[in-house]
Amino acid sequence: MAARGLRPTLVVFARAPAIGIGKTRLARDIGAVEAWRLYRAMSGRLIRTLRDPRWRLVIRLAGKAADLHWRADAVEPQGRGDLGDRLRSGFRAHAVGPVVVIGTDAPDVSRARIAASLKALRPGGAAIGPALDGGFWLLALSSRRARRADLLGIVWSSDRTLADTVRSLGGEVVRLDLLSDIDSGADLIRWRETQRSARMSTSRS
User: Fold this and answer.
1) Residue 58, class by beta-carbon neighbours within 10 Å (0-12 exposed, 13-18 middle, 19+ buried)?
2) How far lies 7's CA from each of 37, 57, 70, 167, in Å?
3) How many domains does the chain have?
4) In CATH, what number is assigned to the domain containing residue 36?
């Protein structure tokens, strides 16, 4: 999967959990303390789940690293600028091999889905995981494309984000599974109902 025998890098964009900082839409719906608890639990579980010897796990962090209890191969600051600037910096910093970037809002990300994204890079060097809200939960680039990524002209946090990103990459992008991001109370309710339905279907089979 990786050029010259190097392991790919999985970069997780995360925020150090703090009450009242981040997840503002979710906090409006369920309260700041509950949003903090949920984010801390979700992000911690996700990072524990995604540790794997097949790739390096790097956390690109907004906030104080001293507040973290997550283990990774490296913890780095996200840097300055809008999301496009920070994503571009993350890709280029680790472009010695394939780079996969995710956030912490999609709780159904798994090691199998990360491995699938790396496999999907082989035809054209880019893969994206679409989210139900019109954004994306994963962006993976080969080392060559990671070095050149500009991610310009993208309206972030909108229903245009996915389409803008695919266009910015020249349209040569493999699409992966459609997943839910949890950004609001309605997203959380919908995801929990999906999980409940899946468990019931499994118990009946």
Assistant:
1) buried
2) 33, 10, 21, 28
3) 1
4) 3.90.550.10
Average pLDDT over residues 112-135: 95
Residue 184: name the closest of 4, 44, 31, 54 by CA. 31
**What pLDDT digit, counting tens, does each position of 19-44 carry?**
877 788 888 888 989 888 888 899 99
Mean per-residue pLDDT over the chain, rounded: 89
Which domain, by its residues, includes 71?
A: 3-204
pLDDT for res 65: 66
Both structure tokens of 197: 């339905």
Instruction: Average the pLDDT over each of 5-9, 45-49, 75-79, 149-153 and give the range with the smallest value.
Output: 5-9
